[in-house]
Amino acid sequence: MRLFFVVGPSGVGKDTLLSGAIAADPALHWARRAITRPESAGGEPFEGVTEAEFSNRLARGDFALHWDAHGLSYGVPHTELPLGRDVLLNGSRAAIAQALAAFPGLRIIHITAPVPVLAERLLGRGRESRDQIEARLIRADQPLHAAVPVIEIANDTTPEAGVARLLQALRA
Ligand SMILES: Nc1ncnc2c1ncn2[C@@H]1O[C@H](COP(=O)(O)OP(=O)(O)OP(=O)(O)O)[C@@H](O)[C@H]1O
Ligand SMILES: O=P(O)(O)OC[C@H]1O[C@H](OP(=O)(O)O)[C@H](O)[C@@H]1O
C-alpha cells in the first residue's frame, strides 16, 4: 500500500483532482473521512458526524489520523486504509508531521494555485459564507512541514490538466 497525503489550501482543487483520479483509475482507494459537518453540505464523499460522535470515536481509537481545521474536526478511520491498495487521502498541511510520524512511508502531494484563483473558486463553489471564505484564504499561504520531500502539482489551468498531472505523479 502506498499512502498519498494530498494537501493544499482550501479551494485549490483537492476534491476535484481526487475524484478525477479515482474515476480514471478505480484501483485507487479514496479514504472517506469523518467530518463534523452535515453531509448535506456536499463536496467529497465523507461521513458527517456530530462533535459528540467524533469525540467518542476518537476516544475508542477508531481514527488512524485526525486533526482540526476551519472550526471542524476531521478523522480518518483505520478501516479506510485497506492493505494492498494505493490510498489517496485529502489531508491538512497542519497534520503533515503527525501523518509522517504515523506513516513514515507517506508521500505528500502539494496542490497549488494563485490566491486570487482560490478566492474565485471558493466563491463559485458556494459551500461557505463570505466570512468563512475569508478565513480560509488567510490560511492559504500556510507553510508546509519543512524537512520533507513534497510532490508539487499546479492546478492552475483546467481540471482535466490537473487530474492528468495528479495521475502522472501517482504513476511515477
Ligand atoms: N482547474 C480548475 N479550474 C477551475 N475550477 C476548478 C479547478 N479545480 C477545481 N475547481 C473548482 O474550484 C472549486 C474548489 O475545488 P475543490 O472543492 O476541489 O477544492 P478543495 O481543495 O477540495 O477545497 P477544500 O479544501 O475547501 O475542500 C470547486 O468548485 C471546483 O469545481
Ligand atoms: O488548511 P489546511 O490545514 O491545509 O486544510 C484544512 C482542511 O480543510 C480542508 O477540508 P474541507 O475544505 O473542510 O473539506 C482540507 O481537506 C483539510 O482537511
TrEMBL record:
* InterPro entries per the UniProt record, alphabetical: GK/Ca_channel_bsu, P-loop_NTPase, PhnN
* SMART domains in alphabetical order: GuKc (SM00072)
Reaction catalysis annotation: alpha-D-ribose 1,5-bisphosphate + ATP = 5-phospho-alpha-D-ribose 1-diphosphate + ADP
Question: Which biological pathway?
Answer: Metabolic intermediate biosynthesis; 5-phospho-alpha-D-ribose 1-diphosphate biosynthesis; 5-phospho-alpha-D-ribose 1-diphosphate from D-ribose 5-phosphate (route II): step 3/3
GO MF terms here are: ATP binding; ribose 1,5-bisphosphate phosphokinase activity
GO terms classed as biological process: 5-phosphoribose 1-diphosphate biosynthetic process; organic phosphonate metabolic process
Q: What organism does this protein naturally occur in?
A: Pseudotabrizicola alkalilacus
Q: Using the record's annotation, list all stretches that form the Guanylate kinase/L-type calcium channel beta subunit domain.
A: 1-171
- Give me the residues that bind ATP, please: G8, P9, S10, G11, V12, G13, K14, D15
Q: What keywords does the record list, in alphabetical order?
A: ATP-binding, Kinase, Nucleotide-binding, Transferase
Q: Which gene encodes it?
A: phnN
Give the UniProt family note. Belongs to the ribose 1,5-bisphosphokinase family.
What this protein is reported to do is described as: Catalyzes the phosphorylation of ribose 1,5-bisphosphate to 5-phospho-D-ribosyl alpha-1-diphosphate (PRPP).
This protein is called what? Ribose 1,5-bisphosphate phosphokinase PhnN
In the Enzyme Commission scheme, what number(s) does this protein have?
A: 2.7.4.23
Keyword Transferase part of the UniProt annotation: yes
- Give the range the annotation lists for the signal sequence: none
The answer to whether keyword DNA damage applies is no
